[in-house]
Amino acid sequence: MSESAFDALAGGAGDAATLRQLWAAERSHRLLLLDLLMDVQAREPTATGPLAPAESAWQLLVAAQRRDGAAVEETLLFPETGLWLARVLRRLRGAPAGAVPLWADVGQLHVMAAAVAVRAGLDFSLSVPARSGTVWLPGLGRAVLPGLPRWDTAQVTHTATGRLRVSARTGQVVVSGALDRPADGWQPPRLLTLDPDGPGSRVFLDDISFHRVSSTQASPPLKRLPDRTAAHWAEALRAAWRLLADADPQSALDVAEVLRSVEPVPSEDDHSTRSASSGDAVGRLATTQPDTPAQLAAVLVHEVQHSKLNVLMHLYALHGPEAEPRLYAPWRNDPRPLRGMLQGVYAFTGVTRFWRGWAGSGREPEAKDALAWFEFALWRRQLLRVLPSLRNDPELTPLGRRLVERLTATVSRWGDDPVPAPVLALARDAADDHATTWRLYHLVPDPDLVAALADAWCDGTAVPEAPLGHRDSRLRPDPGASLLDRRAALLRLRLGEPLLFDKLVASPEEVATVVRGAVPADLHLASGDAATAAPQYTRLIATGEDPDGAGSAAGAAAAWAGLALAARRAGQREAAQALLTGPEVVRAVYRAAWRRAGRAPDPLRLAGWLHGPLGGRVTGGGG
Fold first, then answer.
1. Which of 138, 354, 366, 541 has the smallest number of Cβ neighbours within 10 A?
2. How many C-alpha atoms does 146 have within 13 Å on its Cβ side?
3. Tens of pLDDT along 66-115?
4. Which residues have CB under 8 Å from 343's CB, separation 6+?
5. Residue 58, φ and ψ in degrees, nearest 5
6. What is the DSSP string of 304-345?
7. In sequence order, which residues have a C-beta less than 8 Å from that of residue 262 and are 6 or more positions away?
8. Is the pLDDT of residue 248 over 60?
């Protein structure tokens, strides 16, 4: 790849020719994995079990390649092919076996060979794995053969005249006509174009394959989406792509060139979106269906950015082998390793670009404009919080550092973009809230520092400036950290769905039914009523930190961060600064002072008293 192409991609962009280079690189990567599979499985005598040897499937692939190379190329580059190759190779090289028989895993090679041979019009017959009475032929469809056990075999037979038969001991499925039409026992894939009026890319709405991002390979076969649900998905994807074309042409191009399949994921509730991708499945997106085209557009951008960077990581070493989760990521509950951090900053640079374009497009009602400005301001702030320090990470290779520098340059160009002042203040709150809560979960202050400060507080003595010298807090990841964005979710509700938000304000005890983990104090804070929120947070802190009580320490962590924001809004600058700079120290001193004195300190008074030694001096947590 040329330097200019690398730099364009490193900055989050890339023209159509450069994006096609990514697919050429991924083709090479897949061929290497396929070659490795043939070598590794040959050393395992039972690799194909009741199926023909892998060499038979390989020779069918070769014959199909000679007849219709495009069919083989397309199938090789299906995201599901990448998932399968990576998983079966990990298994053959010692990863836990799971519930899938080895021959069924390796036998996906036979399934792939059969699928491309059908597309090439070859005359053949080949035994393939059948899973719970289904046979999935990538790109063609799924045959349903009821009555088979969970793992069995079926015979795929195709004639040069175009007749396909999938047969097993319980029956057969025969398709003599077009394979893209449903028939008795035959389910074709759902294929849509993002731009029905133009050359937009073809995307599979995948509700029939076995190899998925969101579930294990051993999961039972999916139930096909109802036609009405599938149509709703198709229209939502098209609406999101049209929005991208208007607001962010770069992302529209990325999605058109990179996205190959969408994996619908059932929603756990009505108010959150979950999405995922995989480095093994370039071009695939697994997601619940967001409520609005703008939300789905942001998800598309986010996951396609992951795919772009995944291919770059297949091509180049961007970081060293260290994989310790040690870095603060403003979009996660947990500390991240460097690889995950690079994925995050790359994905959210694209997301920020989209919200910047959409906020400036002026095509939505005023409330939606405010939400777009909020998302842009929030993610711009979060990226500029972590990118500068990430650039100096010693585990980055020169190319990795170059990527971070290009991303930093991209986001820095947006640094002076004006945002409405009220929205900018809310974005600052959301960003600081996440960072503060993260520190409370994952950082532990120096115990000698805490003891000295608690003694000084209880004895009524003056606290020396920077007591005991400079003491960094230590990273100790808490696996129980969750819902760090609950108050940001309420701010989104306030800006995007004001009627629902006002309804909640009138009945604050209902807030957790809409935003998981939220408490009434969070709702008061999100509405701008810091005076009501602060004493509620103080009570939550006392309940959660009580040495003799059974309160929620996790709830107390969120309450400390909420109190910090309430203090800042109320003009208690010194207390707010201490809580935002070293919340884990304030919390630890509060606990130690309570144990020594036998009563709880006033948290805001304590924080104000600690402002001198803590203001700007507490660090830790990998940035």
1. 366
2. 2
3. 999 999 999 999 999 999 999 999 999 887 777 889 999 999 999 999 99
4. 306, 309
5. -60, -45
6. HHHHHHHHHHHHS--B-S-----B--TT-SS-B-HHHHHHHH
7. 203, 204, 205, 206, 233, 237, 284, 285, 286, 287
8. yes
Strands 275-276 and 171-175: unpaired
CA angle 282-286-288, nearest 5°? Answer: 160
Q: One-letter amino acid identity for 76? A: L
- Which residue carries 């053969």 as its tokens? 145
Return the structure tokens found at 260. 């190959």
What mean pLDDT comes out for the span 38-53? 94
Which residue bears the tokens 């014959």? 63
- Tokens found for residue 455: 């003694």
Res 551: pLDDT? 53
Round to whole Å and give the CA distance between 381 and 428: 8
Say how far apart CA 364 and CA 460 lie, in whole Å. 57
* Structure tokens, 591: 């606990």
Name residues whose C-beta falls within 8 Å of residue 620's C-beta, 6 or more positions apart in sequence: 439, 443, 472, 473, 474, 475
Closest Cα to residue 60, out of 120, 106, 102, 105?
120
For residue 437, which of 555, 281, 267 has the smallest C-alpha distance? Answer: 555
Burial class (CB in 10 A: 0-12, 13-18, 19+), 509: exposed
Tell me the pLDDT of the chain averaged across its residues: 91
> Which of the two residues, 95 and 155, has the higher pLDDT score?
155
DSSP reduced 3-state for 154: strand
Who's near 495: CB < 8 A, 6+ residues apart? 367, 370, 371, 374, 423, 426
Q: Say if residue 17's pLDDT is above 80.
A: yes
Q: Which residues pair with 137 in a beta bridge?
A: 141
Tens digit of pLDDT for each residue in 521-579? 999 999 999 999 999 999 999 998 887 765 556 679 999 999 999 999 999 999 999 99
In whole angstroms, give the CA distance from residue 12 to residue 345: 10
Task: Give the Cβ contact number of residue 230 at 10 Å.
Answer: 16
Mean of pLDDT values over 376-400 = 96
Predicted confidence (pLDDT) at residue 171 exceeds the cutoff of 90: yes
Model pLDDT, residue 462? 77
Supply φ then ψ for residue 610, to 5 degrees.
-80, -5
Q: Exposure string (b/e) for 451-484, b if CB count within 10 Å is 16 or more?
A: ebbbebbbeeeebeeebeeebebebeebeebeeb
C-alpha to C-alpha distance for 89 and 30, rounded to whole angstroms: 12
Q: How confident is the model at residue 222 (pLDDT cuts 50, 70, 90)?
A: confident
Q: Count of residues for the chain?
A: 623
